[in-house]
Write a structure and sequence with these properties.
Shape: globular
Helix content: 55-70%
Strand content: 5-15%
CATH topology: Rossmann fold
Mean pLDDT: 94
Number of strands: 5
Order of helices and strands: EHEHHHEHEHHHEH
Strand order of the largest sheet: 2-3-1-4-5
CATH class: Alpha Beta
CATH superfamily: P-loop containing nucleotide triphosphate hydrolases
Low-confidence stretches: none
Number of domains: 1
Number of helices: 9
Largest sheet: 5 strands, parallel
Length: 182
């Protein structure tokens, strides 16, 4: 079983990579966001980035820095197929997954203006923000010395592959194919 963890900046195209792997290679998808949405709903909290971040940080502090992806890994292992875990946000998650399976970490990044425009078009509950808030949200998640909080810059640094998604979707697909050696 191959596990590909997806990390990257906000609106960079992580979901596009996931959809490509699902559609063309049959990977199962396990989403940290969906996991958090379920937990936030169970708690009766508003569905927004602040709630997701707060709950994620709390779960990591109560259990382990890799708690959420460990839960998702268990679901993936039960299926026994190649899987994608989206979105890896802490170094502890990388460490845990690296010990469990044939694990690869992929990162996606793009110019902030492009990413913001994509986020606005995506129109999810976390995307209805100003450009300034979008950047502030990302900066809050970029670095932390607390192992229970997001550290995207370290996750991106540790990636086995980094996709630059400033161009077309076809260009992104070609980058994926090159990594998969197809």
């Amino acid at each position: 079983m191959i596990i590909i963890g997806i990390t990257g900046t906000l609106g960079a195209g992580k979901g596009t990579v996931v959809e490509y792997l699902k559609e063309h290679y049959g990977f199962a998808h396990f989403s940290v966001r969906d996991f958090l949405k379920e937990e936030v709903a169970r708690r009766g909290m508003p569905q927004n980035r602040d709630s997701y971040t707060s709950v994620a940080n709390e779960l990591r502090a109560q259990h382990t820095p890799s708690y959420i992806v460990d839960c998702l890994y268990e679901r993936a292992a039960a299926q026994g197929t190649n899987a994608i875990i989206e979105s890896i946000r802490t170094p502890g998650e990388i460490d845990s997954l690296s010990r469990k399976s044939d694990f690869r970490l992929w990162a996606v990044d793009a110019d902030p203006n492009i990413r913001y425009q994509r986020a606005i078009l995506r129109n999810s509950e976390t995307d209805q923000v100003s450009y300034e808030t979008f950047i502030a949200n990302e900066q809050r998640e970029m670095t932390s010395t607390d192992p229970n909080k997001q550290n995207l810059s370290e996750c991106i640094r540790r990636a086995d592959a980094l996709f630059s998604n400033n161009g077309t979707i076809e260009e992104l697909y070609r980058q994926i194919q090159a990594i998969l050696h197809l």
